[in-house]
Design brief:
about 130 residues; alpha+beta; 3-stranded antiparallel sheet; 3-stranded mixed sheet; 2 helices; about 35% strand
């Protein structure tokens, strides 16, 4: 189905967000995206299309252990996948597809910005 987005209700903060995470050493961005989505949803992604690259001080984070990072968010669109969607797991209270016209409340702010860019129909890739 078109015009849907896969979201997970995160177990750590109760907010809805896009599946994803950090890259592992030696991993490409495509491999990291596929691994994270599989681990969090049970779906295996086919072809990935670059949607956007986001960076800047607004994304800076300090972790509970004091480590400071300046992440680069790389997002993809995937229109074909295989596998069975899991309903929940350790990282997710709920996982489901939403119509872009009927999104849930309480979306993680950084991910809401990506979804807003998708809804605005900006040209790909978005560099923000």
């Amino acid at each position: 189905m078109k015009n849907r987005v896969l979201l997970q209700k995160r177990s750590d903060n109760g907010k809805w967000g896009l599946p994803g995470g950090f890259m592992e050493l030696g991993e490409s961005v495509h491999d990291a995206a596929r691994r994270e989505v599989y681990e969090e949803t049970g779906l295996t992604l086919d072809e990935l299309e670059l949607f956007g690259i986001y960076s800047g001080p607004q994304y800076d984070k300090t972790f509970p252990n004091g480590d400071q990072v300046s992440p680069v968010l790389i997002s993809f669109i995937c229109k074909q996948y295989t596998g069975k969607l899991v309903e929940s797991n350790e990282e997710s209270l709920q996982i489901r597809f939403y119509s872009l016209s009927e999104l849930p409340e309480n979306i993680f702010s950084e991910h809401k910005m990506l979804i807003d860019d998708l809804l605005s129909k900006k040209r790909f890739p978005v560099i923000g």
